[in-house]
From TrEMBL:
Keywords: ATP-binding, Cytoplasm, Ligase, Nucleotide-binding, tRNA processing. It is found in: Cytoplasm. HAMAP family: tRNA_Ile_lys_synt. It is an enzyme of class 6 (ligase). Pfam families: ATP_bind_3, TilS, TilS_C. The gene is mesJ. Residues 365-437 form the Lysidine-tRNA(Ile) synthetase C-terminal domain. This is tRNA(Ile)-lysidine synthase.
Amino acid sequence: MNVDEAALLNQIIKAIGSTRRVLVGFSGGLDSTVLLHALVTLRQTAVPNLNIRAVYIHHGLNDKADDWAIHCQQVCCDLQVAFYSQPVYIDPTKKGIEAAARDARYRAFREILLPEEIIVTAQHLDDQAETFLLALKRGSGPAGLSAMPISMPFADSYLIRPLLSFSRQQLVVYAQKKALSWIEDDSNQDQRYDRNFLRLTIMPHFNRRWPHFSQAVARSASLCAEQEALLNELLQDYLSQLVTAEGALQLDALASYSAIKRNAILRRWLSFHRILMPSRVQLKQIWQDVICARPDAEPQFKLANNNVIRRFKQQLWLLPQFNDLTKICLAWQLPAAIKLPDNLGTLRVVDKGISVRAPLQNEKVTIRFGLKGNIKIIGRQHARRSKKLWQELGVAPWLRERIPLVYYNDELIAAVGVFITESGRCIQGQSALNVKWITDKKPLLY
């Protein structure tokens, strides 16, 4: 099978557009070797101001990984390309080795990517067909079956895959013509991995029966992407009306839509927050267990990557899984500022602020989290149970254990920024303590 070198180079030029700073994901395998060589060829000919860097992601999963890094470094040295080897940690316990390695790889790309630089990777036509079939195996809808786009937003920049229209065999021809050397990863023969099973066992049958199968799959993926783009366009106005300035989703109007339309909006709301798409079963659970939960409930649904969906005041919120702070007790040495845990900011003594009575000489000042028991606050005639008090004050459930509580010995004085207890009331003639909570977080998204 021949490959038109000019067509390959022109496709890369078209894919990278006006960008002149490129970071190449370089494993040393056939695909990335061809991509790097082609980019260097463009730098020598059509795009002389092209700045190329290459990064080898050292997963540490193969005994030969160190040798592969040395090979990649030598290739980059020969091509006069800046080279970086980036070690990553793989945790296969949650998603499996393939998904964990991919997540680690893209985290590393985000870390090393420079301003005004794009990341370029070497997935090709056969990879696209495999990705489509893997999505089909998972029961994905049009979004999943769209497979891999040539260009997609990534870490305030873009991830570009310029070789998607070229088959692996075409890349082999290019590499042989240019006398390139590349690494053959022996783990690619391990059919315990789904992608390897498809590549080694299933795809050869398809290609023998239907020689243009991969091209047909790529067309189907492209059509699915077009359908998704059309749905995005049609639903954008609805989403704009339903999403608040803080990114929450208003539920009153959503309840009047059909299940199909509702799920489509929920998916796009999650996509707006760059969250991995939930399954249809999960969307049903979100609707039944969170959105339709009884009014006085505080429902939540845990998503992948430590994200949580919660409902509050007929709005749906996407939040991180916060750390438990209820066992923390911090001694506050006044008048110095005190740093709060979990990136919550600091408490400072200021000239003007929340005024509570100053502590007596025998009173130890501490900061704690997690309100319990009956609390009588200034402005309320009777004491309230903690949950009831938070509800009356309109404090979101996920904030109730993240608001710093000031104690003198074991007596609650104030929830900073929210209320002061009767025990913390500053009577005329008493010394006052003005406390200010300094944080750059949004009020409902600490």
